[in-house]
Write a structure and sequence with these properties.
The protein is α/β, with parallel strands linked by helices. The chain has two domains: 1-110 and 201-298, P-loop containing nucleotide triphosphate hydrolases (Rossmann fold); 126-195, no CATH class. Helices cover 31% and strands 25% of the residues. It has a seven-stranded mixed beta sheet with strand order 1-11-10-4-9-8-7, sandwiched between helices. A four-stranded antiparallel beta sheet has the order 3-2-5-6. The chain is globular. The protein starts with 19 loop residues before the first strand and ends with a helix. Bound molecules: adenosine-5'-diphosphate (ADP) and magnesium ion. Adenosine-5'-diphosphate is lined by residues 44, 46, 53, 55, 73, 75-81, 257.
Amino acid sequence: MKLRRPLRALTGDRVNLGAVRPMGTAVHAVGDPILEVESAAKWYAVKSAGTRTMALGDVDLEIAKGSFTSLLGASGCGKSTLLLLLAGLLRPSLGSVRYAGRTLDGPPAEVIYIFQQYTKSLLPWRTVLKNVALGLEARSRRQEPSDRMSRAEVRDRCMEQLYHVGLPDVAEQYPWQLSGGMQQRVALARALVCRPRVLLMDEPFSAVDAVTRGQLQDLALAVWQELGITIVFVTHDIDEAVYLSDRVVALRPVDGHVSRVSTIDIDLPRPRDQIATREMSEFLAYRRMLYPMVADVG
Ligand SMILES: Nc1ncnc2c1ncn2[C@@H]1O[C@H](COP(=O)(O)OP(=O)(O)O)[C@@H](O)[C@H]1O
Ligand SMILES: [Mg+2]
């Protein structure tokens, strides 16, 4: 199946910057929807105060198979909540979330969620290789003994994945011996080694310096392109969302908490380039258009 638009030269076609649509209407899609959120609301009970916090209200969203979608919004507007709903790790208080056409009642094996503070999710007493192997080990425990991978197979697959994220030489080191950017590559390798169909990433690059961040963005794009997976990426950074995505879903807080969503298709040529793409007038126009979509309107 062809999942992507054809590549065009960076100096290629002009883009249509009028492509903002309310949710729920048909827009250019890379593939059929793989994840669908329908009229979903989510509130949290705050037991100590005897109240509840409305995190999301009446959200509709479709994630196209093979697409790169960013969920963009200010802190506290419900991005992580929406991502957790997509992962099947949280259930909506109202409405539904479907994966591959079926209503989610738990996290599907093919959908891997990378937590916001994922460098902290690496186990410091395990080597890099053994951290990468964690997901495979968990899967193995759920399988019949005859279906399980051998230790050698697990090792080979983890080594291959470390090579793919640009870390062939650190397998026997410990996470705390690596830089923040390298730890994030390890976390990515740990997710990818399970061969997910969908990767959900919650503000993965927000804690690293600008150059490392650019490199990690390009790694995420390379992995996405090479493996043909679907990525949903949470960020509060407008430029990052525009640079990476086919589509940006802007979440805007209203009354301080409930989010409204609007989508904008990013028709910038691929492959993207940290300098050339960000200098394009269309790139600047997208960021100008998105700013009021994420600003608090009270
Ligand atoms: N487990 C929780 N219990 C209570 N309130 C929560 C919980 N998680 C998030 N919230 C609240 O829900 C709202 C949305 O949070 P979140 O989805 O984390 O936003 P974001 O990721 O955009 O910063 C915020 O008001 C937050 O305080
Ligand atoms: Mg968050």
